[in-house]
Design goal:
Helix content is 34%, strand content 10%. It has a five-stranded mixed sheet. It has a two-stranded antiparallel ribbon with strand order 6-7. The chain has 261 residues and is of the alpha+beta class. It has eight helices and seven strands.
Amino acid sequence: MSVVPSKVRDRLEAEHAVPRDSPALDTTVIDENLVASISQLLTGHSIPCILWGNYLLTVYGVPSIVNSIDFMVPDEKVAASVSALLNTGLVTCSEPKTCTVVAESRSSPPPAAHFHIDSELTICIYKKSSAFWFLPSLELSCTSKFQPADIILASDSCLPGPRPGRGHGRFKAGTFPVCIPSSHRLLEAYLRLIAKPREPDYECFWISMEIYIEEYVDKDGYLDEAALDSRCRMFYSAFKACKKPISEILAEIKASPLSVE
C-alpha cells in the first residue's frame, strides 16, 4: 500500500490549488478525470473529502451503475462545499419536492446537498457523520506498514486494476489525488449503519452493501479482515458463515454499541 507523507500531500494540494472563482467542470464524460477535478476543487478550498457511493464501489471492483459522483466531507464543510461547486457549470436543484435524489421513497439516505449535471446524473455531498462518525478525520492516513490505513488514494497499488464487467478499478497515478476509505473501514461503516436504530428504512440497503463487499472485494482478496474492529469482525464472520438466521444476527448487531461508538 502506498503512503503519502503529509508534506508531500500538502505540496500536491498547493500545486493543484484552484482559485476561489472556480473554473467550470468538464462534465462531458463521467470518468475519473471528473472525479479528480471535483476532489481538486474541494481540496483547493481546504475541504477534506473522500469518494463515496457507487463510484467508490467501482474503484473496488464492484460492478455498479454510476448515476452520481458522491463525496463525503466534514459536517461543518457542507456549506463551503456547496459554495465551491457553484458557478462550475453544475445545475442547482430547481424542483426539490419532486427530485428523486432527495425523495422520501429512495432506498438509501439522501445527500446533504446535490447538483445536477443533467436529468439523470448528479454530484452529491454527504456529511461525514452520516457514515464515518467513528473516524477521527477524512485526511489521508499516513501510517506504517504495521498499522492499516483509514483513508487511502484511489490510485493505490493495493486496489484492483480495471477488469471487464468489474467496475472501474484503481485510478491512474497521474490524476489529482482522490481519497477513499480503505476497504475495512468501508465495511465497518456499512456494519455500523446496519446497527443504527434510527436507520430502519435503509437497513436493506446497508445489508446489500455488506454483501457487495463480501462477494466482490473480500473474495477477490482486497479486504484485510484482520484489520476490522473486533466487534465488526465478529458480526462480519457471522454474516459470512450463514450459521445463524439473519434476523438473529441483526438483533445482535443492533443491540451492540457499534452504532454509537
